[in-house]
Amino acid sequence: MGINRLLRPTAATRALALTAGLLAALTAPAAEVPLTEARRGPLGGALSLEAHVEALRQATVAAQLGGNVLALLVKAGDRVKAGQALARIDERDAQAGVQRSEAGLVQAEAEARNARMALERTRELRTQGFISQAAVDSAETQFKATQAGVQQAQAARSQAALARGFAAVVAPFDGVVLATHVEAGDLAAPGRAIATLYAPGALRAVTQVPLSQAALARGAAQAEVELANGQRVKPLRQTELASADPVSQTVEWRLDLPPAALPGLLPGQAARVRFSGGALPAGAGAQALRLPASAVLRRGELTAVYVAQGQGFALRAVRLGAERAGAEVEVLAGLQPGEQVAVDALKAGLADARPASPARPASPASLASPANPARPAR
């Protein structure tokens, strides 16, 4: 018992051990992460850009009649046929409009009949010499006015019947419901979206090519689309739009996907477009920032790097360009030349990571090599 009492840790010994552990943690050296300098170099002969999948045929069906939504008949993911009802809108007001127009048509037809009989009597009196020709002309004018009133009432009835038909919102083509935008009980108004449909039989990949690399994309020998599941396909056709975005300074490219790649593919999924086998025209002089592939952090749709700031790192989103065999990437936006970036993005994300000594400026010859992870100065 005496020996066990001596071996049993006391509160003082536990506190001493905890203090020693904290001191060891505080005095432990922080993890130093080597840096590399972002420097400009010539663009490579390949171009890899982020893209997304979209449908060639997509439509947002909107209400053309005001009223409460009585029923929403579809949900996202449903397949529909052309003419199938998507939603029903309260049509009582439209039905009242039809009744008003029908009553107006009956009134206009009665006035036209009365004007026709008056014209016939006036002509008979004129042949007998009891009235002047001016009275006949006035009767004829009145009859023509009532005929125009009948036509106007007929058009109003057709318009009211057409508006009543808008109470049933129908699919314009065979497709899949991508999203619904109302629920039963919501108030519909002309122009308010009801549902979005797309035709699943034709999809394409869409990417934005920076103007600085447009010549490389045009001169590429082949284009390839890498889907989210890793499948790589060659597009059936590719189209470059004839205008550039004034804000992002990019040109949109659309690459139609083959039918074999469509099963399981949905609009909005991420993809990558790779242009390869081309070269920049002589004298183009296009430049881009170059970094090792290990310096880029990828988390879903996020691509970012850790930029050295003081004794720590700041995560900054970047937009990438071409990649070559996973060794080096081109940064199109998000960095400035000369900024110091962590070579190992995973290590730089640790809580105790701190920048090593600044990287020495890389030589032009090293920038032209496939990989250039700059070493920190010793």
Can you walk me through this structure?
By secondary structure, the protein is α+β, with helices and mostly antiparallel strands. The protein has helices at residues 2-7, 11-27, 92-127, 133-165, 214-218, 345-348, 364-367; strands spanning 31-33, 35-37, 39-42, 47-55, 58-62, 67-72, 79-80, 85-89, 168-170, 175-180, 187-188, 193-198, 203-210, 222-226, 232-233, 237-244, 250-256, 270-276, 287-292, 297-299, 302-309, 312-317, 319-324, 328-333, 340-342, 353-355. It has four domains: 30-44 and 287-378, conserved putative lor/sdh protein from methanococcus maripaludis s2 fold; 46-56 and 202-279, Beta Barrel (Elongation Factor Tu (Ef-tu), domain 3), CATH 2.40.30; 58-89 and 171-200, OB fold (Dihydrolipoamide Acetyltransferase, E2P), CATH 2.40.50; 91-166, Helix Hairpins (Orthogonal Bundle). The strands form seven sheets. A seven-stranded antiparallel β-sheet has the order 15-14-18-4-13-17-16. The chain has a four-stranded antiparallel β-sheet with strand order 3-19-24-23, with no helix packed on it. Strands 5-12-10-7 form a four-stranded antiparallel β-sheet, with no helix packed on it. The longest helix is centred in the first third of the chain and has 36 residues, at 92-127. The two termini are 59 Å apart. Residues 1-7, 22-28, 281-285 and 361-378 have low confidence and may be disordered.
